[in-house]
Amino acid sequence: MSEVVRSTLVKLQAIIALIGLAAITPLLILVALLGRLIAKICCCSAPKSIAGEVAVVTGAGHGLGRAISLELARKGCHIAVVDINVSGAEDTVKQIQDIYKVRAKAYKANVTNYDDLVELNSKVVEDLGPVTVLVNNAGVMMHRNMFNPDPVDVQLMINVNLSSHFWTKLVFLPKMKELRKGFIVTISSLAGVFPLPYSATYSTTKSGALTHMRALRMELALENQKDIHVTTVLPSFLRTNTDVTQLTHTIGFGDLYPLLTGEEVAQRIVTGMVRGEAEISLPRMAAILYRLILIFPAEWQDRLILLFSRNKFKKLREEHS
Ligand SMILES: NC(=O)c1ccc[n+]([C@@H]2O[C@H](COP(=O)([O-])OP(=O)(O)OC[C@H]3O[C@@H](n4cnc5c(N)ncnc54)[C@H](O)[C@@H]3O)[C@@H](O)[C@H]2O)c1
Ligand SMILES: *[C@@H]1O[C@H](CO)[C@@H](O)[C@H](O)[C@H]1NC(C)=O
Ligand SMILES: *[C@@H]1O[C@H](CO)[C@@H](O)[C@H](O)[C@H]1NC(C)=O
Ligand SMILES: *[C@@H]1O[C@H](CO)[C@@H](O)[C@H](O)[C@H]1NC(C)=O
Question: How many Cβ atoms from other residues are within 10 Å of residue 80's Cβ?
């Protein structure tokens, strides 16, 4: 068979598969909805107990990381509170110990630094035990120079918000595989699926994190590690970070949807995590919106996002130039 005929046949096969998939899509949607409904009614996906497990939470000295640490402690986890800001981390430890009886300890580590993480792991294992819960939360926003970002800032954002997940995976996953259990939670953002203009670095790191976790889930499935759960979180804007609240105020996002509190997000994350949910969008309806928008051609998707933000970003850009 000639190469031309062969590739024509392969293309034909792909087209037929696509038509087949499109034809059964309504059925698949129905099954997905029914599955959700049944799970809701009879609680099929029983949440796992995480009491006594050891959790590493990065960027836990402030904001969402602190809220997640408190929520995991409430469920009985021992917490390694990791941050580059030691005083922030110590504050979190104090808040945990004021309420819960679990062990908690502050650790200074820079998540962009592989050697820091290797050292962190050995300290945590010695102090608290082997790590079976990893929360990739540490992140930097740095929107102070939105329209003309400094290359150093761009690289740092990529290092903290994207590359660091590869280093934490390298350091913490082997033990989870050996024990054949664990939870990995990665904080992405709705910006990972709805990229924002002049926030290319942020949006890119967040969609990169989302894709990283999807690939990891497939690898774990292929390796039969069904008790290691990977959860990606896509929250809308939070109230935790003053730079963010300022930005959302400027672009008028608060009129579209109220900003989320760290506590409500942390609660939803931990509930979803112990059930082994793959992706958590906050608010919930964003999950539907992001699937719907993908049906449209790329130009339309861009226009839809700009529909709400065009004038605000134009004005903001004029102010800054
Ligand atoms: N704020 C939002 O609106 C928003 C929206 C969606 C997603 N998120 C994500 O949620 C996560 C938490 O956001 P937040 O608002 O709580 O942030 P935050 O700025 O309040 O806290 C981040 C913490 O990470 C620490 N950190 C920064 N760089 C680090 C490094 N190299 N090593 C170790 N620790 C480091 C900081 O010291 C700080 O304590 C981030 O990943 C962020 O991208 C935030
Ligand atoms: C570190 O954390 C403390 C306590 O939460 C906070 O007051 C301080 O501003 C933080 N420092 C930096 C550099 O973020
Ligand atoms: C973390 O490490 C990176 C690269 O090693 C460095 O650029 C950054 O300044 C460090 N952050 C802090 C707060 O030390
Ligand atoms: C980096 O991650 C943090 C927390 O996960 C988030 O608040 C911040 O907006 C992110 N910034 C970029 C540039 O991705």
Answer: 30
- The interaxial angle of helices 151-158 and 200-222, nearest 10 deg, is 20
Q: Whose CA is nearest to atom 5 of ligand 3?
A: 113
Point out the ligand 3 atom lying closest to the alpha carbon of residue 85: 13
Residues 147 and 319: their CA atoms lie apart, in Å, by: 11
Counted residue by residue, the chain has a size of 321
Instruction: Summarize pLDDT for 285-314 with one digit per residue, the tens.
Output: 888 888 888 889 999 988 988 887 788 788
Cβ–Cβ < 8 Å for 112, 87 = no
Question: What are the structural domain ranges in the chain?
Answer: 50-292
Q: Is the CB of 205 under 6 A from ligand 4?
A: yes
- The CA radius of gyration of the chain, in Å to the nearest whole number, is 21
3-state secondary structure of 105: strand
Instruction: Name the one residue in this structure whose structure tokens are 């990381």.
Output: 65
pTM equals: 0.89
3-state SS class at 241: coil
- Domain 50-292, CATH among 3.40.50.720, 3.90.1150.10, 3.40.830.10, 1.10.357.10: 3.40.50.720
